[in-house]
Amino acid sequence: MLTLTPLYIIGWRMNEIGSSRVQKEITDSLVSRSSLYMNMLEFDLDGVIRQLQEFVNDDDLLKLTSSSEVMSEIEKMQSQLRLKSRLDLLKKSSKFAEDAIAFIPEMDRTVSANNNIIGDFDKAQFEALTKSTNRFEAPFLVWHDRIFISLPYPDPAVAGNQKPVFLLTVEISRSKLEAALQEFTNEGGRTALVGNKQPFIITNGATAVDEELVHDFQRVGAYGKEEKLQSVDWKGSPYLLVYNYSDKLDMSLLMYVPEAKANASLQVYRTWFYVLSAVSVVLVLLFSYSIYLIIHMPLKRLVRSFRRIEQGQFNLEVHYPLQDEFGYLYGQFNGMVRRLDVLVHEVYEQQYRARLAELRHLQSQINPHFLYNSYFILYRMAKQRDHDNVIYFTKHLGEYFQYITRDGSDEVPLASEIHHARTYAEIQSIRFSERIEVAFEEVPEGIREFPVPRLIVQPIIENAYNHGLENKRRGGLISVGFRARESAIDIVIEDNGDDMNADKLRMLQAGLLDKAEPSEHTGLLNVHRRIIIRYGGGGLKLDLGTEGGLRVTITIPREEGNGDAPLIDR
Predict the structure, then answer these.
(1) What is the pLDDT of residue 220?
(2) What integer is the mean pLDDT of 19-29?
(3) Between the chain's N and C termini, which has fewer beta carbons within 10 Å?
(4) Under the phi-then-psi rule, with left for phi > 0, alpha for psi from -120 to 50, and beta for the rest, what region is 22?
(5) Domain containing 257 — which CATH number?
(6) Which helix or strand (DSSP H or E) is residue 141 part of?
(7) Is 535 in contact with 452 (CB distance < 8 Å)?
(8) Could you tell me if 165 and 183 lie in one domain?
(9) 322-348 pLDDT per residue, tens
(10) 485 phi and psi angles, rounded to 5 deg
(11) What is the average pLDDT across 130-149?
């Protein structure tokens, strides 16, 4: 849509420029018609005026006005007929003349070019038409709504009080003027001839509305004596008005047309332009929607599918109904997903087997760890013939080896793991009875059956014996406590050894992050790595205890199903 906007603006601008040019041609045409009609009217009536002036010297007219008393009736009749004939020629010389009349007061006769009329003298008309006029600036006289060009002889303006001996007049035809106006008027327009000093209005329609409109134009001064084109508002409707003033005839030619009709052709083009614009917008929207359905929607579905793949959902398949480029792309995507699913399962299985093998290996490292020390203790007690302690020792030793060599589950209830740690502590108490004491808290009832990996507590206690309390001659203490949290359980094992400091603590903490096994504290790293492999989190946290020794916190994360989920799901 944005790409088409500049083209639409250019098209709209071109349409406006074209409309302006067409409108200018329309107005120029109106002005040209107005000037042409006024020039034609001036030329025609100027000829009438000149012929009237030449008519003054007509022999028959002079005889009839000055010598009629000495003329016989036949001579009078012949002169009148010749005069009528020339009046007829005068009438025919103008396309707008209705009649040419000669008034002869001396004979009490009126000679007309129409209908072979030689009639009685009309005194009222004669007196009305003998008014003096400037025939080259304001030639018209109006009598009984009829328009005349008159030539009295002699002219009262020159002769003073002397009465005219004859009057020549040409009546201008309203109907012929209206017909000529009609020829020069555009469709839907109006034209009017308006007298200035003599009040007359001639329109091509000759309706009361036209006369009212022209009167309103006169009242508001919509036109003057200069040729001009302007827009005039009349009763809420805009009109295009062209007026042309003739200083020879003292009248104005008005051409006026409602702007809606004058611009009707332009309005048609504008309407079609708007229709074209609306259709273009609809087509663009339909095209955009089709592009959305054909391209955007399939791409959007494909992107959503890729995001599901990113989330590990490989059991999906997308369908596309058409056999086009997207159909091919969807097919290849489904094939890729199937291959990825196979590869991911293979990788998971390989990782599971590798982790399980590492877990078995780490667990197997503990099995022989305590064996050689136990045999030395048993050897010493047998040599001393300490039969009671031999019985006690071998019982606990049997339970110990039975626990670590059991081929059952890799996880046991926490209570069982703590019982094994107690067994180990009982065995060690025979060796360190005077130096080291081990204190176990009772396992809280809510976590007694919580499943934990086997052999995670005993190696930590063993590390306390071998390293934390190695140099403790008496008063050594190892405490074992428990904390139950919503997300995990903690087993806290703390000794009160004297050799732990901040530097050694940092070394131990760094050792937990090192994949290579250190020469010392193998049990700590063993337990930590097994928990991390099993749960993906948790493990050991090392810090200084309240008694100055090492405090080891074993964190076992809680899982749904009490941690019984298979390793491959983690």
Answers:
(1) 46
(2) 70
(3) N
(4) alpha
(5) 3.40.1840.10
(6) strand 140-143
(7) no
(8) no
(9) 888 888 888 888 888 888 888 887 887
(10) -115, 170
(11) 82
Closest CA to 416 of 427, 403, 426: 403
DSSP string of 160-214, one letter each residue? TTPPPSEEEEEEEPHHHHHHHHHHTSPTT-EEEEEESSS--EEESS--HHHHHHH
CA dist 502 and 492 (Å) reads 19
Report the range of poorest mean pLDDT among 86-95, 136-145, 451-460, 467-476: 136-145
Length of the chain in terms of residues written: 570
Residues 464 and 554 in one domain: yes
Show the domain range for 559: 377-569
Q: State residue 427's pLDDT score.
A: 86
SS3 538: coil
CA distance 234 to 241: 11
Omega prior to 154 cis, within 30 of 0: yes
Judgement on whether residues 102 and 131 belong to the same structural domain of the protein:
yes
* β-bridge partners, 32: none
Is residue 252 assigned to a domain?
A: yes
Residue 149 contacts residue 135 (beta carbons within 8 Å): yes
Provide the percentage of residues in the chain whose pLDDT is more than 90: 13
Is pLDDT of 223 > 60?
Answer: no
Q: Which of 79-88, 373-382, 522-531 has the lowest mean pLDDT?
A: 373-382
Comparing 390 with 433, which gets the higher pLDDT?
390
Tally Cβ neighbours within 10 Å of residue 467.
20
The DSSP-derived string for 6-60 is HHHHHHHHHHHHHHHHHHHHHHHHHHHHHHHHHHHHHHHHHHHHHHHHHHTT-HH
Q: In this structure, which long-range contacts are made by residues 527-531, counting pairs with CB atoms below 8 Å and at least 24 apart in sequence?
A: 527/455, 527/456, 527/459, 527/460, 527/554, 529/358, 529/362, 530/359, 530/362, 530/363, 530/453, 530/456, 531/453, 531/456, 531/555, 531/556
**Higher pLDDT among residues 240 and 97, named by residue:** 97
Residue 489 in this model has a pLDDT that exceeds 90: yes
CA dist., res. 552 & res. 492, Å (int): 6
Same-domain check for residues 181 and 279: no
Specify the amino acid at residue 230: Q
How far is Cα 228 from Cα 38, in angstroms, rounded to an integer?
14
Tokens matching residue 98: 């209705």
Where would I find the H helices in 367-471? 371-383, 387-404, 414-431, 458-463
Grouping H, G, I as helix, E, B as strand and the rest as coil, residue 152 is strand
The enclosing domain of 84 has a CATH number of 3.30.450.20
What pLDDT, on the 0 to 100 scale, is given for residue 222? Answer: 47
